[in-house]
Structures are given as C-alpha cells and as structure tokens.
Write a structure and sequence with these properties.
Blueprint (H helix, E strand, L loop, with lengths): L1 E2 L5 H11 L13 E6 L2 E7 L9 E5 L2 E8 L16 E9 L9 E5 L2 E7 L23
Antiparallel strand pairs: 1-6, 2-3, 3-8, 4-5, 5-6, 7-8
C-alpha cells in the first residue's frame, strides 16, 4: 500500500507561487504524481517534462523511495520574455507499506513521464489455506 506523508503540499505550492518556483537543494520544487494499482503491481507516475534522463536520481532506502531531478537554469544572458516553467531541483519521497517489494522496483522514462512499477510482496498476496476434514489439526498449504 502506498501512504501519503506530505500534509503540507498545498502550503508548499502557495509558498512556491509567492517566492518563485525555482527549486533549490534546500527547497525543491513540487513534482506532480499519480499512483494506482494494476493487479499485483502499484504504478506511480511523475511528471518531469524537459528533464534529461541522466539528471534523474531514484533511491530506495528501506520502504522510502526518493525521486530527485533537475532542470538547469537558462543561460543568464538570454532575455526572458516569459518564464513560467519551474527550473532547478525537483524532489519527491514516497513511503511504501511493508506489503510492497522494494527490491524489485522497475523504472522507465518516456515522453517526460517517469513510471515506477512496484510489485506487491509475495507474503502480502492472498493465498488459500486447506483444512483437513478428519482431524483437529489444520493443514496449511501455502
């Protein structure tokens, strides 16, 4: 199961609108995300348009997945007419439940979308337990 642990996300968005949207290491920009379940796999997608694939870092430590990316600043000599796209560092952390297999996460990046596929752990999948009819004991078939 995927757990959200960012109760201040809206406050962060308002702060970024007020103070500017360029992310720094101390104050990274928000990274929009969708998450859903497909059978025995959780799928998480992050919007990272215009981010070079080699600037994306994906780290897993215990049950925390951290995605970090950077869109570099424009050349300072350029005369900007409009600058609405956020630049700088983007970061997002997901706290995963114990029922997900963090050792087998796969990641792909296509058309500006980073997609993680996180399988459900074997011990968390439903299983049948058979009962012997002529005995006080239960036989467990796993």
């Amino acid at each position: 199961m995927l757990m959200r642990t960012d109760p201040f996300r809206e406050l962060d968005r308002l702060t970024q609108q007020f103070f500017g949207s360029d992310g720094t290491a101390a104050r990274p920009s928000a990274m929009p995300m969708d998450a859903w379940r497909e059978g025995d796999t959780f799928v998480v997608e992050f919007d990272l348009p215009g981010i070079a694939p080699d600037s994306i870092e994906l780290d897993v430590e215990r049950n925390v997945v951290t995605v970090k990316a950077e869109r570099p600043a424009r050349d300072e000599q350029a005369e900007m007419i409009a600058a609405e796209r956020p630049r700088g560092i983007f970061s997002r952390q997901l706290v995963l439940g114990d029922n997900l297999d963090t050792d087998n996460i796969t990641a792909g990046y296509e058309n500006g979308v980073l997609r993680l596929r996180i399988p459900v752990a074997e011990q968390a999948k439903p299983r049948k337990i058979s009962i012997n009819a002529g005995s006080d004991r239960q036989a467990i078939n796993v």
